[in-house]
């Protein structure tokens, strides 16, 4: 396992992040305490130190289990949790990005995790009601209190993240060092705005659903039935004609390389940028071992090109418009490629 700096910080995290939404059985699936510990131990023994959870995962069981697992090695673990999602029905202020829920959620997470501090505290999802300055000042207060070391943000439009970090920089508050997005060969729409923003603002990117809910493992290719294609929007996206073509290419490359489709899909994501870290979850330790094997798989330029072609998306306006040779020439005096190369150098 290798390590990376998370965004514009000195925090060193493993190149794979352990996702723990499946630790606990409250949602009707997932792993019991014993199997969850085997996953945790497998990850740590492989050199992993970056673990992702949330106050909402398995009704708090995920955090409670992790608190017991890491008790004897808390300093070695980079623990990330989140707030924003409700934990009970009926409470007017139970849920949301506002300061009241922020503080109460953190205190509850600290108790479940049995720790004095959280390494990375994520805003889980933007609520479109809380002012940006309330969020950033509230998070900065938590950092100053010592209960949070770094702040990050998940599932939020790029314009909100950009505004928030600019405001924090101008006012001397703690800035987001990372953003979490759904990103995979099947879900590449973050490439329109979220990933370029992350690159420009030096945000580390953690990618959830890097296997598109298991679709990229190839498990649906020979299912023989499309009866549940319309069951949910997520299922229809992951099992439509485009997704099946992408998955088939992943499986073909895996067979040629002598590895698994899981490892090819995760390796593609890892090779998309130095700051991109897949969040890998599993129901068993054996599944997790398969995923961790991606660190030993390197895709060639030809393999990357084949995967990029079959999964390509339209970036839309203004990106496609600004990428045309005519517009580039009009804005740079026929010097676009020279200027870009000089900027990279």
Features:
single chain; 345 residues; alpha/beta; TIM Barrel; 8-stranded parallel beta barrel; two-stranded antiparallel sheet; 14 helices; 14% strand; globular
Molecular structure report:
- The chain contains 14 helices and ten strands.
- It is globular, with a radius of gyration of 21 Å.
- Strand 6, helix 4 (132-145) and strand 7 form a beta-alpha-beta unit.
- It folds into two domains: 3-312, NADP-dependent oxidoreductase domain (TIM Barrel, Alpha-Beta Barrel); 314-345, no CATH class.
- Helix content is 42%, strand content 14%.
- By secondary structure, the chain is α/β, with parallel strands linked by helices.
- The chain has an eight-stranded parallel beta barrel with strand order 3-4-5-6-7-8-9-10, surrounded by six helices. A two-stranded antiparallel sheet has the order 1-2.
- Residues 225-231 have low confidence and may be disordered.
């Amino acid at each position: 396992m290798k390590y990376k700096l998370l965004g514009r910080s000195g925090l060193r995290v493993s190149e794979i992040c352990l996702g723990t939404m499946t630790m606990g059985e409250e949602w009707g699936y997932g792993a019991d305490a014993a199997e969850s510990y085997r996953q945790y131990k497998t990850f740590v023994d492989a050199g992993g130190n970056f673990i992702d959870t949330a106050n909402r995962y398995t009704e708090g069981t995920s955090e409670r289990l992790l608190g017991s697992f890491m008790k004897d090695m808390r300093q070695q673990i980079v623990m990330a949790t989140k707030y924003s999602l409700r934990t009970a029905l009926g409470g007017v202020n139970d849920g949301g990005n506002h300061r009241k829920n922020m503080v109460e959620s953190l205190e509850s997470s600290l108790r479940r995790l049995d720790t004095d501090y959280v390494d990375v505290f994520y805003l889980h999802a933007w609520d479109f009601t809380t002012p940006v300055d309330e969020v950033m000042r509230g998070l900065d207060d938590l950092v100053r209190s010592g209960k949070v070391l770094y702040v990050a943000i998940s599932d939020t439009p790029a314009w909100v993240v950009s505004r928030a970090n600019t405001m924090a920089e101008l006012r001397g508050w703690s800035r987001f060092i990372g953003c979490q997005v759904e990103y995979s060969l099947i879900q590449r729409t973050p490439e329109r705005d979220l990933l370029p923003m992350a690159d420009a603002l030096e945000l580390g990117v953690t990618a959830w659903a890097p296997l598109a809910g298991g679709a990229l493992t190839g498990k649906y290719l020979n299912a023989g039935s499309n009866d549940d294609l319309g069951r949910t929007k997520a299922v229809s996206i992951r099992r439509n004609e485009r997704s099946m073509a992408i998955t088939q290419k992943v499986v073909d490359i895996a067979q040629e390389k002598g590895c698994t489709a899981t490892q090819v899909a995760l390796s593609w994501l890892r090779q998309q940028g130095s700051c991109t870290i897949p969040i890998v979850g599993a129901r068993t330790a054996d599944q997790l071992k398969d995923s961790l094997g991606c660190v030993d798989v390197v895709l060639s330029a030809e393999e990357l090109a084949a995967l990029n072609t079959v999964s390509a998306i339209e970036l839309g306006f203004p990106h496609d418009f600004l990428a045309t040779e005519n517009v580039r020439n009009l804005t740079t005096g026929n010097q676009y490629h020279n200027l870009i190369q000089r900027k990279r150098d």
